[in-house]
Amino acid sequence: MVDTVNITGIKQTIIQKLDTASVDTLEEILELLQIRSSEDEEDIIESRKALEEARIVGTIPWAEVKRQAGL
User: Fold this and answer.
1) Which residue of 16, 37, 52, 64 sits 20 to 30 Å from the alpha carbon of 45, by its own alpha carbon?
2) What is the DSSP string of 26-38?
3) pLDDT of residue 63 exceeding 60
4) Whole-number pLDDT of residue 2
């Protein structure tokens, strides 16, 4: 569960910092956010591929993985 009180405080702090940030800093932040968004999209695509592969090929039960690892 997301702590909405904490998120609100974080957002307020970010807004305060952005108000005094330089243009260069703001551009760097925007670039970082765009990179994160792109990475998130790539992760979603890869996750969907892995799920499809698991559906087609199948998976190994956790108990079998533990047995093979000697746990």
Assistant:
1) 64
2) HHHHHHHHHHHHH
3) yes
4) 59
Residues in the chain: 71
Residue 29: which residues within 8 A CB-CB, separation 6 or more?
18, 21
Least Cα distance to 59 among 69, 48, 50, 70 occurs for 50
Q: Residue 6 and residue 12: Cα distance in Å, rounded? A: 10
pLDDT at 6: 87
CA trace torsion 1, 38, 28, 12 (10° rounding):
-20
- Token pair of 4, please? 């909405």
Coil, helix or strand at residue 21: coil
